[in-house]
Amino acid sequence: MSDAVSPLALPFPDMPPIAGVTARTVRAGYKDWGRTDLTFVELVEGTAVAGVFTRNLCCSSEVELGRQNVALGRARALVVNAGNSNAFTGYRGREAVEAIMEQVAAHLGAPREQVFVSSTGVIGVPLPKDKARAGIAAAFDAPAVGWEQAARTIGTTDTFAKGATASAIVGGVTVHLSAIIKGSGMIAPDMATMLGYIFTDADVSPAFLQAALSAANTRTFSCITVDSDTSTSDTVMAFATGQAGNPRIADATSPGADAFAAALHDVCRQLAHLVVRDGEGAQKFIAVAVSGAVSDDSARRIALAIANSPLVKTAIAGEDANWGRVVMAVGKAGEPADRDRLSIGFGGTWAAREGQPLADYDEAPVAAHLKGREISIEVDIGLGDGRATVWTCDLTHGYIAINADYRS
Amino acid sequence: MSDAVSPLALPFPDMPPIAGVTARTVRAGYKDWGRTDLTFVELVEGTAVAGVFTRNLCCSSEVELGRQNVALGRARALVVNAGNSNAFTGYRGREAVEAIMEQVAAHLGAPREQVFVSSTGVIGVPLPKDKARAGIAAAFDAPAVGWEQAARTIGTTDTFAKGATASAIVGGVTVHLSAIIKGSGMIAPDMATMLGYIFTDADVSPAFLQAALSAANTRTFSCITVDSDTSTSDTVMAFATGQAGNPRIADATSPGADAFAAALHDVCRQLAHLVVRDGEGAQKFIAVAVSGAVSDDSARRIALAIANSPLVKTAIAGEDANWGRVVMAVGKAGEPADRDRLSIGFGGTWAAREGQPLADYDEAPVAAHLKGREISIEVDIGLGDGRATVWTCDLTHGYIAINADYRS
Fold first, then answer.
1. What is the mean pLDDT of chain B?
2. Contact A324 B123 (CB under 8 A)
3. Chain A residues touching residue B90 (CB < 8 angstroms)
């Protein structure tokens, strides 16, 4: 954890424990530091698992094995290493992951395929097997910890601990979701990989858990961007212990399925926003809302083009209602758009409508809006009903300082 | 022109006049400044024309009309306005362009379709017709100027005047090419649109001129990037007056066609590099060379993903041989790549080979290379024969200062 807390940080929420989930943290010493850096989460037998993983083709062994084993649907444990990403380390990196899976599986008497591993930190250095082995052995005997301690231990360049919670009523039974995430920047492969874990006591089939997580991902984690870069290790997983005693959610037609999916979506949205709020050098949280596109997908691609534009992001940093740069970003997205139908606003005030600057454009409310911490950019394409919202942060001197001055 | 000249600037070359081309410059006063801001270039009757234009869908009226009229193959004049891009100005912007075309066509007794107009500067403000009209009338009587004065007059945020020249022997006759360009950043729609003009005395058919320019564009202007943003007005045009008296180049099989195309490619490459050398805040000129991809196109997309990555660009700014960030950028390009075959080097020294850090990696020559102004990043994908080189600059505090502090 860094010392200078993001000005966009939120306090860690009060999050309920989840029956069937026990987290423990130790210092494996992956780097020469005093902090805890290994998180071991034990899950009760029968826990369902789902996951979404980076699309980066140069992904780590952790991601390859995770993607493969999540398809089997069951989990007994999660290990998260902070300080070393184990990415781009060839067969030695893979051996280290397999050794961790073996050790935990033997301890729990569980199949190896039910042990999930994530690693985050420097790239290109194989995870030291001896440190991992000793750390995990220590973790078996370590005391259980609360969510905030677990969130801190999975963090690397994060400037604050990130958690989110929600609940839903399923067949008359309240189920809880408690979740933690790390990531600050979307996403530096060195140190700022996004790793998110959602734990729930709901009884859910692995298939429905995966469907609900994938759907939520499309409108949350896939809709945030800090710098358009994509980590080799990004991972979001959901674990459902089934301890709440609700009537089982087998599929989308089961009672309570919609309520559960909505709560999962809510947690994912909160987590995604927290990552943006810890964007490297971020001073402003920006929502880009696109409407009137030919489809929702098209709207999302346009919104991402705007959110990834360095010129738009620096304009917001400079508190400049520079709608010309937004026009440019819409145009370069390559999606259907017509200059003469385009409308652009900031904080609910239109600056340009149907391709032309507004004759009676009132700059005062826009200028006041841009001085705040929470910025919205509204774009209407004027062609259809497609809409999407994407979240990002501004691009500041802080981003350059963090990324130009960091040494691998 | 800005006061602080880019540290990567090159001196303006000694460029020959081109028979059949006369440039004049005046101050139309598009902004409240003392400098010349309108360039009028008269071309001898029969001049062939070709052009490549921005793919930004929200392009200006100048680009729409230029793209349309270039297809007719002939040009008699070029007008370049600096200080106002006339983009996103609806029908009033279009009227201003058509008025300029009318005025020049009437003066020269030429078809309106042979008058080409470009505008660069602030967006969203219709080009003032009265100022343009008075400026053009004055230009008809202004003295002819040299290339450097023309290059300065088309410039906006450029910190130095940019020109390039080359020659070729066509059927025993030497033909000359002299070219100017403006742009600093790829590309801020406000002020840093890329506008390039190549003039040659060669006798070339419009069809071959277009084919040669399009081919050169693919490997030059399409291979540079400063910040991944795309202007609404980017334009590169070639004008061939036919005054050299060479045997006409009708098509690719004509004698001298290859020599002429090579000279045109050379000029385009020089111009493209000059734009990168004036990249906003640039301290280092970076060549990204990708080999071993499945195709040349694939190699170019991978090279652009690397060159557009803020994390790679800040690493170079920090003189950090951070090959992990290059791996990340390769992976996110979405092109065929295999982590375990990937090799990455800097300045001719491999840092990682076939997916793993080099055991005997010698950091000293790499560190020395990264302290220089001219940086190369070499990436071998290890899958095929596709190769491409892309040019960019580093991402520095200067970029943020220029773009966050500029007010529209």
1. 92
2. yes
3. 340, 355-356
The pLDDT, as a whole number, for residue B55 is 80
Per the CB < 8 Å rule, is A328 touching B405? no
Residue A191 pLDDT:
40
> Is residue A395 within 8 angstroms of chain B, CB to CB?
yes
Chain B residues with CB-CB distance to A323 below 8 A? 124, 408
Is the confidence at residue A189, as pLDDT, over 70? no
Interfacial A residues in 25-64 facing B (CB < 8 Å): 55-59
In B307-346, the residues whose Cβ lies within 8 Å of chain A are: 308-311, 314-315, 317-318, 320-325, 327-332, 334, 336-340, 342
Q: Please give the mean pLDDT across all residues of chain A.
A: 92
| pLDDT at site A100 | 97
Average pLDDT of B254-281?
95
Least CB–CB distance from A311: residue in B227, B323, B352: B227
State the average pLDDT over residues B102-109: 98
Residue with tokens 């189920």: A175
Whether the bond into B187 is cis, omega within 30 of 0: yes
The answer, yes or no, to whether ipTM is higher than 0.90 is no
Main-chain dihedrals φ then ψ at residue A302, nearest 5 degrees: -65, -45
Q: Which of A268, A210, A251 is nearest to A75 (CA)?
A: A210
Question: Using CB atoms and an 8 Å cut-off, which of residues 353-372 of chain A contact chain B?
Answer: 355-357
Give me A4's structure tokens.
């200078």
CA distance A356 to A10: 39
The residue that leads in pLDDT, B311 or A213, is: A213
| Structure-token pair, residue B209 | 């001129």
Q: How many helices (H) and strands (E) does chain B have?
A: 11, 14
Residues 6+ apart with CB under 8 A from B88: A324, A327, A339, A342, A352, A355, A356, A357, B58, B60, B123, B124, B232
DSSP for A255-288, written as a single string: TTHHHHHHHHHHHHHHHHHHHHHT-TT---EEEE
Structure-block tokens of residue B136: 């053009």
For residue B292, the surrounding DSSP H or E stretch is strand B285-293
A399 interfaces chain B, CB cutoff of 8 Å: yes
Closest CA to B219 of B282, B176, B167, B270: B270
Average pLDDT over residues A19-28: 98
How much is the pTM? 0.84
